[in-house]
# Entry
Amino acid sequence: ELVRALSDVAPAVASEAARQIARLKAKDGSLAVAAAISHASVVVRCAASESIPALMPKKKALSALDQRLATTIPRELACLLPVLGRLGDARLLGAAVAALDDVDNHAVVAPALAMFPAKLLVKGLPGALAGGTDTRIAGALTALAARPDGLILTAQILPALSSAHQLAAARWLAPRLSSV
# Structure
């Protein structure tokens, strides 16, 4: 019944079916959930992406998620980033950070970055920020500021940034630090 609901034309029904299959750990539904990762609706793709790790071993889950790694849709980046982070995979970090070049994406992408594992952020964020705009840096720092360890992470990342990006980061940080 739930597997059939994954192909429902209503995104709310199909996405809830993916979540229920994962909640029940119904392994017999794993292939159907993996197929839903190609659904026309971003809502269903996100629900399927979030459900896959509960249904498959890590290696198979990462393989199933591979087909979504080329996305540039901010909402999809925001749902995939935490899933991949929990699986220890930082391949989507660059695309998510690049989406921050558009200030309209900050509200969608920055919270997902804030949930990304610290170890992966420290390792991948400097490269993802390279060549970026001040808007991208402000978005990334906004994401870090939302974390309890945000200032510590910022201090770890700053030395790896170019001097121009360090200056942009300092301009962003100055008013925030003066209010602490």
Q: What stands out?
A: The two ends are 54 Å apart (CA to CA). The CA atoms of residues 78 and 139 lie 13 Å apart. DSSP finds twelve helices and no strands in the chain. The chain has a mean pLDDT of 91.
